[in-house]
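I am still getting used to backbone structure tokens and would like to learn alongside you. Would you supply a protein for us yourself, any chain you care to pick? Start from the sequence, derive the backbone structure tokens from it, and show both lines together. Go ahead whenever you are ready, and we will take it from there.
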Amino acid sequence: MLVLTRKPGERILIGDDIVVTILDARGDGIRIGIDAPRGVRIQRDEVIRAVTEANQEASTSAATTDDAESLIKKSLGL
């Protein structure tokens, strides 16, 4: 991991076509702007983790629902 110190207005270049600009620094947080080609996905890690967890929970509860439905049909002789 490369660790850099930057001031507002300064930029970091990644490859030939990605530019990260430090927009503002306040207290514990910073604001950054990212210029990248449309084909480059830029996502927040915490959002991806939350979606992954929600999908895992949904798939588990769907399997549980299917199991319960199967048991009900079996007990009714369907």
Summary: The chain has one helix and three strands. The CA atoms of residues 6 and 22 lie 7 Å apart. The mean pLDDT is 87.
